[in-house]
Amino acid sequence: MTSVLISAEEILQKGLNAFRFIDARHDLVNHQLGTEQYIKAHIPTAIFLNHETDLCDVKTGKNGRHPLPKREDFANVLMAKGIHIDDDIVVYDADNMMFAAHVWWMLRWMGFANVWVLNGGFKAWQVVGGDVEEGIAPALPPVTWTLRESLVKTVSADEVLKNIQSQQFVLLDARAPERYRGEVEPMDPVAGHIPGAINHPFALNVEADGKMKSPQVLRDAFLPYTQKGLVINQCGSGVTACHNILAMEVAGLHDYALYPGSWSEWVADSTRPVATGE
Prior knowledge:
The protein has 278 residues and is of the alpha/beta class. The protein contains ten helices and nine strands.
């Protein structure tokens, strides 16, 4: 176990009762897939959180595809589902942790201190023969707790805009290279990237089996981005950028922030500049 990752074997050793499990499986195109996968099979007692409803605010057309909810509203969602801020929580998705990392980050944003991501996701759990159950897990009784100071940083679109000239921080884009270059754009109305952003696709962080690469490999990959100190992470809608943040944590690099609105918010304002190519 690291400060942010836990293996399927470690969960088996400690026992299911040691943790509260959150199932974060999702698909950015087929929004029903996560629910379907959860109902078919999930880690026993796991609570499902939906990226399109539980984990984002109302979409206005100007605030991106996964706008952060108000902290108080998200706290109410978690409390209603029986998730306590002092629980030891394990978040998982299908395999490569792209959605689990987002939930991990959001819980840290709420002040949750004890949150781990299942390395390799539900696939890794199945490989070790972990128990599963089908259907919807019985609802937990609601709980109450008080919001705590956020454990992570965010920046706004205005701060990113100012940085194009000031170059005070490095902006890291987690999307696939072809989207970054503007050759294709399957999700948003404008193709390209924020001027000055450096492309580090989140897929570079994992091995073929969906597990995170070693801390040293990740440190070697991310250390060059830290020459200005703070590294701002963005992607299409603030989801996969959290994977780069998770990888930085594994690498022992902690000076990072998230631009939650990311590309989908950025291009909603036509006055913001857009770059293409490398």
